[in-house]
Amino acid sequence: MTSTTIDDAPFIEPSATAPRNYLNDEYGVLSWLLTRDHKRIAILYLFSVTVFFTVGGILAFLMRLELLTPQGDLFTSDTYNKLFTLHGIVMIFFFLIPAIPAVLGNFILPIMLGAKDLAFPKINLLSWYIYMIGGTFGVYVIIAGGVDTGWTFYTPFSTQYSNTHVFAVTLGAFITGFSSILTGLNFLVTIHRMRAPGLTWFRLPLFVWSMYATSVVIMLATPVLAITLVLLMVERVLHVGIFDPKLGGDPVLYQHMFWFYSHPAVYIMILPGMAVISECVAAFTRKRIFGYKFVAFSSLAIAFLGFLVWAHHLFVAGISIYSAMVFSFLSMIVAVPSAIKVFNWTATMYRASVSWQTPMLYVLGFIGLFTIGGVTGLFLAALGIDVHVHDSYFVVAHFHYIMVGGTIMAYLAGIHYWWPKITGRMYPEWWARLSALLVFAGFNLTFFPQFLVGYVGMPRRYHAYAPEFQVLNVLSTAGATILAAGYLLPMIYLFWSLKFGRKAGPNPWGAVGLEWATASPPPKENFHETPVVTWEAYDYPAFLKAMRETQHG
Amino acid sequence: MANPTLHHLQHPGALEEDAHPHHPFLQHHFEDMGQQHEASTLGMWFFVAQEILFFGGIFAAYAVYRVMYPAAWSAGAHHQNWRIGLANTIVLIGSSLTMALAVWGAQAAKRKFTTLMLVLTLLLGMTFVGVKGFEYRAHFEEGLFPGSNFTYVHHENPALTRGVELFMVFYFVMTGLHALHMIIGAGLLIWFIKRAWRGDFGEEYYSPVEIMGLYWHFVDIVWIFLFPLLYLIH
Asked: Is B125 part of a structural domain of the chain?
């Protein structure tokens, strides 16, 4: 590992006059709405996904309120059906899938590559508008009276029987899909064609590898959802029997096609989380990620294997026992690359000088919660246990450990880690640590009881339940309150920090990576001159040596 | 904490602007025309990959029901006029030829030739869509449009009627999505005809025509699969 240019790394002197950056380069609403700068588009996405996250969170909180008592007293069962359906749709299609790629990926990926922008800036802006159009359909459905099919839109209920706004919401999901396809396409081309001179594939930060894998999954899975939803809408409008057994269709085919997208979609949600975690682990342990190539290729392995496991959602839907056994086996195989990542992050921390800033707290939360979510995924991949706990709160707890305990923890880690880069300001560390603790404690209190209550038999998607489940449900609702406080805090103090936060400087963490080699906030073109990369990713030994020499010299 | 930063600009001059002026169509975030061209063609290849999965989903569903209802599928295919389908296939392959010639013309900076070939591509494409429209009308009149307008009854074996309706659902969705792709392609062609006539394209800058070609050929290939699946296999 040689690095000739780091050894004589000088400091960047803060300039006396306020330097031009992407934020103060232009002013006015139109300079944002018509921007083609990937950094500004990331900010547009940041605002939009935060709005949808808040909406989805409120829906979840209403559900937890209803579940305080065994009898249905706050909402009718119809309203409750709409609450969980809208919560799922909003959180998955409008928050989790775009969150990390479209906000953090959009902002950081081109800078990590030393590029001035993504390959197709106009398409990047277009993807935000498509997302907003899809989101408008979602908002319309919420206002117009909701939808009650569950986020999975299972047929024939969704096509023949439900009298709610199925068409509008599936159209919204269909449209939003193209937004993620365009983002994925943009990332893939940018990673292939826009890397700075010297930035070879194995010098890429692991964030880029994981985003690459995410983009592949987005590109190859989302169109299948699109065509599935087209068929669903056709069936609903024409009342023909594509998926309705009464008219000669096959409802299990719908489930196959839906999960052919929606299981890989889980990896669309978690792979970007893993991308963030790799960056933060390296930065806060000041080490190269243990087994760099294993972590890089495990992302691709997850992307590939993720396409081969969809039918584990159908174990009780009447598929043949032989295919169920194959899918059960494949579902266990996909845990291997995920476990490789967890072990390698942990091994990176071994005998490192770990610092405990907020992003690292979120990272540790992620590793623990993702492990629990992943291991309970193995329970569910086992045929016998799956039949026992299918459609119970055990499943709800499992996927919330992955999506909330995994993806949202990683998203918050990334937001805190790159906040100084995005805004040029530090967030208040004490409050941020408090929020990380609240989120971790609140999350566990919310969802761990759901494993227990699901295992003893409480089914999901009901607004009333047997009285003996009440204690665990009250614990869960109490946890949700703490979790909500943990999520509200960052919204307040991050906003506060925009004006009152300490100025960050280009590299507040002392981290290695091209994004820390430019100003905070970055100039509009990211770098004044195209960087030439001569060092390996996470070259902390050389970096720390250079730092010591500069300080003594 | 100190703020050390990797300062990577140790090669002054190595990346300075070239002496000759920028190509007018070089976007600011690309280093040179070669990088821009490679990015846009790769982008279209990825887009085509995405399209394959999009159509792949419905081809898979088609295959499932073909296996479930072989007799109805055969009966449905008998209602397609393979002669018209064959003529349309030839029209479409012809448009692929003119499209390929347009790419060559753009690369060779033959302004009039490129424009002419793009216009021909557009005309042939629209001929295809027009013929498709006539076929659709015939199906409507026969009562073969699925849903409440579906008045068709299979006389020899009424039990097949539902299956024939399902076949027609796939027929309309598959050919309809294909026609939609043709119409989007036609819109792009109109734009590129204008640009070709203006003389935008040449040796250094022809990627828009080339990726338009990739898209057009892909849409043609989809039809090459649709034609036998919907018209020929009984």
From this structure: yes
* Mean per-residue pLDDT, A471-482: 97
Here the CATH number for the domain that contains residue B59 is: 1.20.120.80
> Of A189, A197, A221, which is closest to B46 when you measure between CB atoms?
A189
Question: How many residues make up chain A in this entry?
Answer: 553
**Confidence class for position A542, pLDDT limits 50, 70, 90:** confident
Pairwise CB contact (< 8 Å): B8 & A241: no
Range of B71's domain? 33-232
- What tokens does B129 get? 């869509």
Q: Do B46 and A185 touch (CB under 8 A)?
A: yes
pLDDT given at position A259: 97
Q: Stretch B139-156: mean pLDDT, rounded?
A: 89
A118 to chain B: closest CA residue: B29
CA dist B76 and B171 (Å) reads 9
Please tell me the predicted confidence (pLDDT) of residue B149.
Answer: 86
Helix (H) or strand (E) holding A51: helix A38-66
Burial B113-143 (b: 16+ CB within 10 A, else e): bbbbbbbbbbbbbbbbbebbeebbeebeeee
Residue B8 lies in a domain: no
Q: Do B49 and A219 touch (CB under 8 A)?
A: yes
> Does B4 reside within a domain?
no
DSSP-assigned letter for residue B156: S
Structural domains in chain B (count): 1
Q: How far apart are CA B197 and CA B194, in angstroms?
A: 5
Contact A51, A105 (CB under 8 A): no
B60 CB neighbours in chain A (<8 A) are 257
- Beta bridge partners, A459, equal A392
Check pLDDT > 50 for residue A2.
no
A12 close contact with B: CB closer than 8 A: yes
From the CA of A448, how many Å to the nearest CA of chain B?
Answer: 38
| pLDDT tens sequence across A162-178 | 999 999 999 999 999 99
Q: Is residue B28 part of a domain?
A: no
pLDDT in tens, A238-251: 999 899 999 889 99
**Structural domain spans, chain A:** 36-552
Nearest-by-Cβ selection for A223 from B27, B54, B69: B54
Nearest to A116 by CA among A419, A537, A530, A533: A530
Domain A36-552: give its CATH code.
Answer: 1.20.210.10
A532 and B28: CB-CB below 8 Å? no
